[in-house]
Design brief:
globular, 5 helices, six-stranded antiparallel beta barrel, about 15% helix, about 325 residues
Amino acid sequence: MRKPLVAALTTALLSGALVASVGAAPASAASHRAVATSAASAASFTSVAAPALTAPARAGAGAGTGTPGEANAKAVDFAGTVALSNCSGSLVRMPSSEPNDPALVMSNGHCLEGGMPGPGEVITDEPSSRTFKLLNATAGTVATLRATKVSYATMTDTDVSLYELGTTYSAIETKYRIKALELSAARPAQGSAISVVSGYWKKIYPCNIDGFVHQLREADWTWKDSVRYTAACKTIGGTSGSPVVDNASGKVVAINNTGNESGGRCTMNNPCEVDANGRITVRKGINYAQQTYGITKCVGVGNKIDLGLPGCSLPKPTGESPKAGVSVKEILASVRP
């Protein structure tokens, strides 16, 4: 998972504060997720140090970086991206969104303040008051936006969270001169030049789409039809939830979420690729994202999530008790010496 999790827990362990952090973690409001999930996630959230306020950086930019044919995407900037307490994200709109619709912020499902959703778990219309730092083109903070609810979140098939804000696109644009990034309704193409824009680190990672993965498996979670980057996108913890922008159209085509850090096979922080025949491939150092064009088919009038719309394939709530999310023990097991 591409959030600052391992470093935060390592710091907590060294200071002897892990137990205290977990014990002090507040339960999420009206949450139906396991207590262990909320406690583990809250411990990592409260231990995260804010990134240094340095000048915006374009990771890998400059002569001699990347591989032949990979663009540096100089036209892509930070306007419309957001920084969360532990992840990156973006202010997004659908092709059908109207100016007076309540605005949406998109990040990863594993970045939720209440903990990682368990396999098979789908969260809809859960109250939230989470805040987001809205950035301008040069990565300066222009506003603090606040959610009213988690409209949708899951880590099943994809890894996404969509927060509804208490303000509209029109109000944000009028007051801050920032437009939301638009989600493309079209599937991205292999070889396309892209930019992974991290509001948390204020860095842009330029590369290309290397290909698509039938299934991407990490610990207990499985994602479908994932985007695999070329090696130039060396995303790190904190880039989770970053919008993946198609350089040609300027639209969002995916959401950054993970990468294989140490060559492990299908373990936490070491996802593996599974093809249609069940064959497993491990690509150490390669990073991944989840496509977002399918989300556009699941948003109806008023920017409301409608999982019953024709063509909507996002996972739906089953009404069954979900498997508990990641535990403290599992997170600690992912901390490397």
